Amino acid sequence: MTIQYNQSDPEAAKPARAAFYNDPAVRAIFWQVVVVGGALALVGYLVSNALENLARQNIASGFAFLDLPAGFAIGKGMLDYDPSNTYLRAIVIGVLNTIKVAVAGIFFATIIGVLVGIARLSPNWLIARFATVYIESLRNVPLLLQLFFWYALLVEALPVAREAYGPVLGFYLSNRGMNVPLPHDIGFLGLLVGIIIFLIAAIWLYRRNKRIHDATGETPNTLGPTLIMLVVFPFLGWAAGGFPTDFDTPALTGFSFKGGGVVSAEFMALWLGLTLYTATFIAEIVRSGIQSVTKGQWEAAGALGLRRSQILRFVVLPQALRVIIPPTTSQYLNLTKNSSLAIAIGYPDIVSIAGTTLNQTGQAMEGIAIIMAVYLTLSLSISAFMNWYNKKIALVDR
Amino acid sequence: MMQPIKTIALTFAAVLVAGQAFAGATVDEIKERGAVRCGVSGALAGFALPDSQGVMQGLDADVCRAVAAALLGDATAVEFVPLSAQQRFTALQSGEADLLSRNTTWTLTRDTSLGMDFVGTTFYDGQGFMVPTSLGVSSTSELDGAAICVQSGTTTEKNLTDYFRATGMSFQPVVFEGFEESVTAFVNGRCDAYTTDASGLASIRVSNVSNPDDYMILPEIISKEPLGPAVRNDDSEWFDIVRWTVFAMLNAEEAGITSENIDSFKGSDDPNIARIMGDEPGMGASMGIDDAWAYNIVSQVGNYGEVFERNVGASTPLGFQRGINALWTQGGLMYAPPIR
User: Fold this and answer.
1) Where among B163, B194, B224 does a domain terminate?
2) How far is CA B291 from CA A144, B69, B139, B252, B302, in A?
3) Same domain flag for B112 and B242
4) B328: which of A12, A127, A327, B75 lies 20 to 30 Å off by Cα?
5) Distance of alpha carbon A319 from its chain centroid, rounded?
6) Contact assignment for B177 to A155 by CB distance below 8 Å
């Protein structure tokens, strides 16, 4: 029997449709609504249950405590803080401290990790073994123990403040930390502007260089101009500020150093521990990325006459970055969250300060909620940035 | 396609069956469990520290045992829960511990906004400072600009700040979560002074440093620290039992009853003693416990004086004098309402 598509009978032309409750699209939407609604209902139930129990036991709830005076002191930080300031200000200082150690940790962990990862693949037997020993030993010991180790090392090996090493160019080193001289004159802003202008000019020069190279294959000399700019621009900035030379140098008075800035022993121990620990993981990720590039690439590049360092820089690493970036994002997030171990060695990060707050006000749920919100924001920001970077440097397959 | 329905339905059912998470009647729970769950420090010599056999020894621990003797008739029916300074209130609020006997200071904020009530004071203390003798400091007024080690989340932190603000001095706080870490940092010279309750300082000087003579406790006491047990505020029967346990120990010492001579007081003509011994009925029934509750406390654990001398007294390494912790009849602050 032949099928006849009769123009005057549109009903016969349509294929048989299933009932709407058998339609896959409708079913998908239905289950999604049910699951999301169920999840929201569950969360709502838990929250209301908690609030009811808190009210029954007469425990305060809500975030009104943020306006109350804190009443506890915090070690020297980036903002001025007095115990009569609010809890909110104390928490902000905690967040800044966490960001400070996370940024410093991520930056140096990346540098060390990349170098050690490449070193482990070096044809030089000694360098490769050193890298292996470093990675294997630090990767397998729990981070908390490493932090205790570094802190104990700094506190026991360095002298007490009254017998500090120094001054060397105004720097002092003791088991309280490193005291540094700080610029004291407003004219130093000129120097800062000069350095920023130099950085912008150097980046512009590098990109111009790349453009010329892509277009003509020539590599104009950049080292000379860069060095000249490195000297000239900051000098001009310093001159514009009026040649300031006034430094706020630390001096030992009574129990401790007055004046200048301080990099506390707690910060140094935390930064050292976090950096060296996370660098081992990043090193392994870099190694896996490099090994993921097919051997043919190495051989072809070698056949073109490129040295090993040039092969790494121009051929292998750009391809390896595709493999390296996503796991490295995870390691950055791990580093940020691992900084919460700071309270064990006395560094006032957000967990330490929010913990003190929740102990003094008795509001455990709000305190933990604040900590969770802070880490969630930090982690989402880091991963958003890394995802953008990943897209940006992705190789476009032709 | 029935799988998702089943999973979701089961989840909802489980959640609803788990029911409202209310805190039930504490006394019933303890009787059912057969032991009192007592939150203690577990790291403070003289107050709660396991000995070489693993048995918790200390003043706070003995108070827990006395409560168990009163309620359950058996001083060994105690489960000790070691708690850090940060965990202790949450552990009590959530029901992980029934009684918090953890050298906790009785303050207004803690009494009113944490959902717990303090039953009384078992040790009147105050906050002090400890410095290395080599520092050459003899008074707290010389500590301007010093770095001070302190444990996080305690009244110590707050008092320290208040004291330095009041005297117009400044200091550098170094705040640790762990007790051992804070003491280690002090011993290594990371900070110039250590601060906590004077009883805690004496305890550290005796058991956590290599040479006690290298350290001295400064004479100034900068705050009132009445240490006492606390319970949740949702069970007044339990509150009464714990409170009158402490009072019974004090009343027994006042009457001269010790764990050694208690049986000689049986059948005494003195109605006061008769009520403590349980010979005169009614004192326990009103709290829902056995009339021999006070007898059990004193015979199994001891009166307050015995507990004090055994754990922190002159014959122990801590070597505290009774001082303000003596009975009111001896010029101290310990005064218990009568059992009648």
Assistant:
1) B224
2) 52, 12, 52, 15, 17
3) yes
4) B75
5) 23
6) no
| pLDDT at A69 exceeding the cut of 90 | no
pLDDT value for A262 = 86
CB-count burial class (<10 Å; 0-12, 13-18, 19+) for A289:
buried
Q: How far, CA to CA in Å, does A263 sit from each of A97, A161, A285, A342, B181?
A: 12, 13, 31, 15, 20
B56 and B142 together in one domain: no
CATH code: domain of residue B114: 3.40.190.10
Provide the shortest C-alpha distance from residue A356 to chain B (in Å): 5
Identify the pLDDT of residue A91: 94
Helix (H), strand (E) at residue B156: helix B155-166
CA atoms within 13 A on the CB side of A277: 24
- Gap between the Cα atoms of A391 and B248, Å rounded: 74
Contact A73 B160 (CB under 8 A): yes
Cβ of B315 under 8 Å from any chain A Cβ?
Answer: no
Do B320 and B192 lie in one domain? The reply is no
Interchain contact, B93 vs A364, CB within 8 Å: yes
Q: Do B230 and B320 share a domain, yes or no?
A: yes
Flag whether B165 is in a domain: yes
pLDDT in tens, B77-100: 999 999 988 789 889 988 899 999
Contacts of A56 in chain B (CB under 8 A): 22-23, 234
Q: Which of B117, B160, B188 to mutate to test the interface with A (most CBs of A within 10 A)?
A: B188
Helix (H) or strand (E) segment spanning residue B217: strand B215-217
Are residues B231 and B316 located together in one domain of the fold? yes
Nearest CA in chain A to B134: A162
Domain contains B4? no
Tell me which chain A residue has its CA closest to the CA of residue B150: A346
CA-based nearest residue in chain B for residue A71: B158
Note whether B119 and B136 are same-domain residues: no
The token duo for B88 is 């202790």
Q: Which residues of B touch A94 (CB under 8 A)?
A: none
The predicted-structure confidence for A206-246, as pLDDT tens digits, reads as follows 888 888 888 888 778 888 888 888 888 888 888 887 877 87
- Residue from B163, B169, B174 whose CB has the most chain A CBs within 10 Å, to mutate: B174
Tokens of B81: 């829960």
Q: Which one of A23, A82, A359 makes the best mutation probe of the B interface by having the most chain B beta carbons within 10 Å?
A: A359
Does the structural domain A87-140+264-392 have CATH classification 3.40.50.150?
Answer: no
Token pair, residue A274, equals 């976090």
Per residue in A83-114, pLDDT (tens digit) is 888 999 999 999 999 999 999 999 999 999 99
What does pTM read for this prediction? 0.79
Together in a domain, B54 and B83: yes
B340: exposed, middle or buried (Cβ count in 10 Å: 0-12, 13-18, 19+) = exposed
SS (H, E, C) B120-151: CCCEEEEEEEEEEHHHCCCCHHHCCCEEEEEE
* Structural domain boundaries enclosing B67: 26-124+226-330
What value does the mean pLDDT take over residues B272-281? 88
Report the percentage of chain A scoring pLDDT > 90: 45
Of A175, A348, A362, the CB nearest to B89: A362
CA-based diameter of chain B, in Å? 82
Residue at B13 is within a domain: no
> Is A32 part of the contact surface with chain B (CB cutoff 8 Å)?
no
Q: Residue B260, CB half-sphere, CA atoms under 13 Å: how many?
A: 4
Tokens linked to A84: 């009569």
Q: How many whole angstroms from its chain centre is CA B95?
A: 17
Structure tokens at B329: 């009849």
